[in-house]
Amino acid sequence: MDNVKFKSNIVNKKPIIAIEIYALLATVLLVIVNFTSPRLILLISPYLLLVGMAFPGIPHGAIDHHLDTQHHAQKYFLYTFILKYLSIMAMVFLIWWLNPLLGLALFIAYSAWHFGETDFRRLNSFHPLSAFLGGLSLLTFILSSHPDEFVTYLFLFGIVPTKTLPDWFLVPAVLSFVAFGFIGLLNVKDKWVEFICILLVLLLGTQLPLLLAFGCYFILIHSLTGWRDIRNGLKTNDQRLFFQALPFSLGAFVFFAGFIWISNDQHYLPQQYIPSFFIGLSCISAPHVLFMSKFYRALTS
After folding, report:
1. CA–CA separation, 171 vs 120, rounded Å?
2. Which one of 8, 143, 153, 271 is at 20 to 30 Å from 74 when CA atoms are compared?
3. Which of 169, 175, 222 is nearest to 194 (CA)?
């Protein structure tokens, strides 16, 4: 596969210490805490994830209205942007409502593309096919390496009738991890330290609860990488970008709170709010994936 590198050195501006190294150190610390006090991890996980979503999880996706620099100065741009965003979100929600399995499959598909695009551009080894397959194998590994929790969530989504765990469930975990490593072996020409750190974060995540394992990747690697790419691509700084993202960041939190509130009743257990959260996340992620991909293409054109 031919590798396509960023033509702009803005996005590839190298930090002193790679993001992935910080992510690995944080994941190691969480695994140590989990081995010494599993109850403590269960207690603090929601707060860690909430802090991570407050920054950079939500903000890195709340700056999309600044990414389309070509049309940003047009009259009524913000109104048309919001209309497009809400239309895509409504379409995704309709799919979930009609067929939860199809909604989940689409969510995994465009998340795989988005994760793969961000990671492999970061690794200077982007190719559309390898990016998608890399992102898909990464997501498959995170989910299938936590079979009990994943099946429980599928049950709460109404996708599977029981919480019975298939005997073959760990097979996709092994195959997907091998596939992700193989794709990296074929494509990553430099930045091997960063790629190995990603592999180790994924492996160590198997010793953490599913949501926390996903958070280690999504917050500490993907979101921080996306935030850095946007900051450098727009030639701005963290403080200014944060305040530019703040209105839509607050709007996203209001959306999640409202979506969860109207999707459940007061008698539900806390874990039963998780499907509603992920449906909301899938709705708000779909337009972000489209705008972010367009932004990356503009940087490399």
Report:
1. 25
2. 8
3. 222
Tokens found for residue 224: 């921080």
4-36: per-residue pLDDT in tens?
444 444 444 555 568 999 999 999 999 999 999
At residue 195, φ and ψ (nearest 5 deg) are -65, -40
In one-letter notation, the amino acid at residue 252 is A
DSSP string, 10-38: TTTPPPSS-HHHHHHHHHHHHHHHHHH-H
E strand or H helix that includes residue 241: helix 238-263
Contact 281, 255 (CB under 8 A): no
Give the three-class secondary structure for 165. coil
pLDDT for 70 equals 61
Q: Please state the length of the chain.
A: 301
DSSP-based three-state secondary structure for 126 = strand
* Angle separating helix axes 274-300 and 238-263, nearest 10 degrees: 150
Considering only the C-alpha atoms of the chain, give the largest distance between any 2 of them, rounded to a whole number of Å: 58
Scored b (16 or more CB within 10 A) or e, 2-28 reads eeeebeeeebbeeeeebbbeebbeebe
Closest CA to 285 of 139, 137, 116, 85: 85
CA neighbor of 34 nearest in space, from 172, 154, 204, 177 = 204
Tokens 């890195």 sit on residue? 60
Matching residue, tokens 């921080």: 224
Show me where the domains of the chain are located.
Answer: 19-300
Task: Please give the model's pTM, rounded to 2 decimal places.
Answer: 0.86
Match 């963290």 to its residue by tokens: 238
List CB contacts of 54: < 8 A, sequence separation 6 or more. 249
Angle at 254 between CA 104 and CA 75, to 5 degrees: 95
